[in-house]
């Protein structure tokens, strides 16, 4: 790894001379790198995987449905000649599934013995009308969108840190949401035990995600772990404005029509994935940043400011400690720093 002062100077140089536009079809060369994408069988996760594969990365598609994963795998190989891609069964709402999947990655069951980044993308957008819980009693939306990824990132932290080099710092990217700007939603009742509402469940879970992503970077830096944590959101990205991909995105004519009416404020999931991918691979980005479409709902990826709630240090610390308690998991910061030679 470069000394911090040298790396800062390098990043300033890269930023000053970087093109303002970001073309998902012309990413920096990712040959030799490996990325794990959760929820990769559809939507943002699939198109992020496709963009990374086109740039030469080895992509691990993960999801909870074997059939949907197989369809995404076949689609990606058909659309990206010579793509390097594998699949991994992973249900982020199930702690046992998370630990089994992470063990597979750590155990070297994949083509490349390294992990350069994780896109923590999977989640529930259309939340249930009534409160539901997982097998271990956690509120379903929180568990899927936030808590499961908190556990997965902890499980993969040492694997990520091993891939750090002089030219690359591994990253984890958390999927935020523009909805967090529309209300404070301070998650004091983090599992919504005192009152459940479908919309609040979604927005509050995203506040938790963003708080975890920002807090993770602070703690990684403090512990000297050579891994960065970045938060990104996709704007308003919808299926009806997204290219048809068999087995992945097949909107009806009616959905195409309805979503087409929202063209002034919406974009495709393919375009929405660009913010996530840029947060994962752009060398000019540093840990702790927040990225999303330039016009909030659509546009090229740009650096932005997260909501006050998710960036508040006291809120972040409280959420982190609550997630540790709910998951029974503490991040292995010391071990990750040690295996990276820090």
From TrEMBL:
Belongs to the short-chain dehydrogenases/reductases (SDR) family. One of its GO terms (molecular function) is oxidoreductase activity. Keywords: Oxidoreductase. It comes from the Bacteria. This is Oxidoreductase. It holds the Pfam family adh_short. PANTHER family: NAD(P)-BINDING ROSSMANN-FOLD SUPERFAMILY PROTEIN, RETINOL DEHYDROGENASE. The keyword Cell inner membrane does not apply. It comes from Microbacterium barkeri. The lineage of its organism: Bacteria, Bacillati, Actinomycetota, Actinomycetes, Micrococcales. Residues 292-316 are annotated as: Disordered. Transmembrane segments: none annotated. The keyword Metal-binding does not apply. SUPFAM superfamilies: NAD(P)-binding Rossmann-fold domains.
């Amino acid at each position: 790894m470069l000394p911090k002062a040298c790396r800062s100077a390098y990043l300033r140089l890269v930023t000053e001379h970087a093109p303002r536009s970001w073309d998902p079809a012309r990413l920096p060369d990712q040959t030799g790198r490996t990325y794990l994408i959760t929820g990769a069988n559809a939507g943002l996760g699939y198109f992020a995987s496709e963009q990374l594969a086109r740039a030469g990365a080895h992509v691990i598609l993960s999801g909870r449905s074997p059939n949907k994963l197989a369809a995404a795998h076949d689609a990606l190989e058909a659309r990206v000649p010579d793509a390097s891609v594998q699949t991994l069964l992973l249900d982020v709402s199930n702690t046992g599934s998370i630990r089994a999947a992470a063990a597979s990655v750590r155990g070297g069951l994949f083509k490349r013995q390294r992990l350069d980044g994780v896109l923590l993308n999977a989640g529930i957008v259309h939340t249930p009308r009534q409160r539901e819980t997982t097998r271990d009693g956690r509120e379903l939306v929180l568990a899927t969108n936030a808590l499961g990824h908190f556990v997965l990132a902890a499980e993969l932290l040492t694997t990520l840190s091993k891939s750090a080099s002089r030219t690359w710092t591994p990253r984890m990217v958390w999927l935020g949401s523009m909805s967090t700007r529309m209300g404070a939603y301070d998650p004091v009742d983090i599992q919504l035990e005192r009152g459940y509402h479908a919309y609040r469940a979604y927005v509050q879970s995203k506040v938790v995600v963003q708080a975890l992503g920002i807090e993770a970077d602070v703690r990684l830096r403090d512990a000297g772990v050579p891994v960065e944590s970045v938060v990104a959101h996709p704007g308003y990205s919808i299926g009806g404005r997204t290219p048809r991909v068999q087995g992945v995105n097949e909107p009806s004519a009616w959905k195409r029509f309805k979503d087409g009416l929202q063209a002034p404020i919406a974009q495709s999931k393919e375009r929405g994935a660009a913010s996530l991918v840029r947060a994962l691979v752009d060398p000019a980005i540093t840990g702790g940043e927040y990225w999303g479409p330039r016009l909030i709902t659509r546009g090229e990826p740009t650096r932005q400011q997260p909501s006050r709630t998710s960036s508040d240090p006291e809120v972040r610390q409280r959420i982190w400690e609550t997630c540790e308690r709910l998951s029974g998991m503490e991040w292995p910061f010391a071990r990750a720093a040690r295996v990276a030679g820090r």
